[in-house]
User: Which sequence fits this backbone?
């Protein structure tokens, strides 16, 4: 079974600064997807960024980028130029590619990020 | 982007009653939908996988008779919490995706409070 671990329950950063959220995972699969989701106070889950394991290049979406280390099974999220609207709970998630079970997302425990003015 | 809608967004019920939560994919068909439960300040825990036209697949520890799932059409899955008790109070979230490898979209969630 896959597991996803986020070792930072809470983090804070000053507005305009850069912050990195950590995530490690465990799997026996060689091909899979990794995600970072954001859950603001509204509780709506929002996809931040997605990485396919077979792609060596780290994914980037505007101010959000990842550091994907497949051998180390590490998938960290870097937020540059932090904004007040980035304040949210961030979840790292894993999804395999095998059959119907490959559709399921396994979430980490979450990291509550607070951006301070 | 694709939209998944849940209804109701919040519901309060008395202990012993049943509550139905709907999850609809508004602009795509979904043969598979997922139901998650989330306690305050905790992660999302998968409860069951809802399959259109067949029985749902429940995760270990989730009571099938307690949480009834029906996926009668390609755009609608329902979760019924039967004989609800205060410990069933939680935030329930559904998700679905348009195609095999596409992005998973989440509903807005439904907050259930059982008195």
Assistant:
């Amino acid at each position: 079974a896959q597991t996803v671990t986020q070792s930072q329950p809470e983090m804070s950063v000053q507005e305009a600064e850069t912050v990195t959220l950590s995530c490690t995972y465990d799997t026996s699969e060689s091909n899979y997807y990794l995600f970072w989701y954001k859950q603001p106070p509204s509780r709506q889950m929002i996809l931040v960024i997605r990485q396919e394991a077979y792609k060596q290049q780290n994914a980037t979406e505007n101010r959000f980028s990842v550091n994907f280390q497949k051998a180390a099974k590490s998938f960290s999220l870097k937020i540059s130029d932090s904004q007040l609207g980035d304040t949210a709970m961030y979840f790292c998630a894993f999804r395999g590619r095998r059959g119907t079970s490959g559709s399921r997302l396994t979430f980490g425990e979450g990291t509550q990020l607070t951006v301070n003015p | 982007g694709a939209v998944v809608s849940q209804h109701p967004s919040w519901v309060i019920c008395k202990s012993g009653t049943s509550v139905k939560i709907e999850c609809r994919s508004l602009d795509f068909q979904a043969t598979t939908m997922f139901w998650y439960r989330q306690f305050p300040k905790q992660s999302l825990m998968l409860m069951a996988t809802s399959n259109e036209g067949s029985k749902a697949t429940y995760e270990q520890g989730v009571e099938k008779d307690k949480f009834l799932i029906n996926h009668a059409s390609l755009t609608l899955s329902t979760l019924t919490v039967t004989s609800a008790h205060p410990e069933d109070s939680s935030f329930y979230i559904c998700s679905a995706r348009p195609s095999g490898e596409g992005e998973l979209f989440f509903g807005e969630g439904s907050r259930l409070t059982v008195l």
Summary: Chain A has a mean pLDDT of 93.
